[in-house]
Design brief:
This protein is an alpha/beta fold. It has 16 helices and 9 strands. It folds into 3 domains: about 160 residues, Rossmann fold, CATH 3.40.50; about 70 residues, Helicase, Ruva Protein, domain 3; about 60 residues, Orthogonal Bundle (Arc Repressor Mutant, subunit A). Strands 2-3-6-1-7 form a 5-stranded parallel beta sheet. The chain binds adenosine-5'-diphosphate and magnesium ion.
């Protein structure tokens, strides 16, 4: 069997490095892992990393995207079926759990797992054996479970949308993967990684100004969005990537024009006084600078070119937290 390509997992920020250190320890154990994070933060990549670094690395890793499987097919996809279990079941079929036997199974978007099947999943996990749909004989299975969620499962449990017993069973080791905007130090390295990956051997450079825009942007789609942006700009890039080549929303975020355009009140309200317009823009600018500095007032004051006490007074005046 050929060895799979090594995983390029970039971790420059202190935050990501400490997570990576935990991932190594987690991989060595055989515990169930719950990966928690927004879309595109790298949950699937980490699941793969855990499997490859685990004692089961030479055994299969079966990935299941629960949000893309139709609920009525889910049971037989996961657990298989006997011949004749449905009119269309002309042969017996092994499910994904059986295919993952002795290896790992990655259940992505576990928050989309239908409530009606949750007790069956729990039973399989607890007893380490399953019944195929229409089957009478239990099949024993030995799998390491890795799950991922994009929402707070505890909150789903509290409002009765997710079984609490299943939640405790899958949440043995929770691992929160922070969004990219909370680990901006990773952005240059990851951008560089994708440049190399999609640059087709060309040596491409991102100008300082363009890199600043990439770092400042809030990346709602996280690393997946960064990957797509680099993939797109690389097509037209000629040696260097300048800020003009970046998509408008990235280029403009944080720029004065963007803040002015974002100020609906100034644009729509007709009877504002000069004083009110100035105050409105000023409070928007302060809010934006604080957001970009992730709440760090010293940093925000520096970006705005004012001293800290002036910033404090203004924040107080506008009631900005
Ligand atoms: N730390 C990282 N270093 C390099 N590439 C990454 C990293 N994290 C995520 N990626 C890449 O970003 C994309 C989205 O990651 P993925 O694991 O699918 O996210 P999620 O499952 O959380 O939606 C994939 O192409 C993945 O390879
Ligand atoms: Mg994913």
């Amino acid at each position: 069997m050929p060895l799979p390509a090594p995983i390029s997992f970039i971790a420059q920020s202190g935050l990501m490095r400490s997570i990576l250190a935990r991932v190594d320890a987690i991989a060595a154990s055989d515990s169930s892992v719950l990966l928690i994070g927004e879309t595109g933060v790298g949950k699937e990549l980490i699941a793969e990393y855990i499997h490859r670094a685990s004692p089961r690395s030479l055994k299969p890793l079966v990935k299941v995207g629960l949000s893309s499987l139709p609920p009525d097919l889910l049971e037989s996809e996961l657990f298989g079926h006997q011949k004749g279990a449905y009119t269309s079941a002309s042969t017996e079929k092994r499910g994904l759990f059986e295919l993952a036997d002795t290896g790992s199974i990655f259940l992505d978007d576990i928050d989309d797992f239908p409530y009606s099947l949750q007790s069956k999943l729990l039973r399989v996990l607890e007893s380490r054996e399953l019944l195929r749909v229409g089957g009478m004989t239990p099949v024993s299975i030995d799998v390491r479970l890795i799950t991922a969620t994009k929402v707070d499962l505890k909150e789903m449990v509290d409002r009765g949308a997710f079984r609490s017993d299943l939640y405790y069973r899958i949440n043995v080791v929770p691992l929160v993967i922070p969004p990219l905007r909370e680990r901006k130090e990773d952005i240059p390295a990851i951008a560089g990684h994708f440049l190399e990956m999609y640059g087709g051997g060309r040596s491409l450079r991102v100008t300082d100004e363009a890199m600043r825009s990439l770092v400042n942007y809030h990346w709602p789609g996280n690393i997946r969005e960064l990957r797509n942006v680099i993939q797109r700009v690389v097509i037209f890039a000629n040696g260097q990537i300048d800020v003009a080549e970046l998509p408008a929303e990235i280029r403009d975020e944080g720029s004065l024009q963007y803040i002015i355009k974002a100020c609906n009140r100034c644009l729509t309200e007709e009877k504002m006084t000069f004083e009110q317009v100035v105050e409105c823009l000023e409070s928007n600018l302060l809010g934006q600078a604080l957001k970009q500095a992730e709440g760090n007032r010293t940093q925000a004051a520096k970006a705005l070119g004012m001293n800290l006490s002036t910033l404090r007074d203004k924040l107080k005046k506008y009631n900005i937290e």
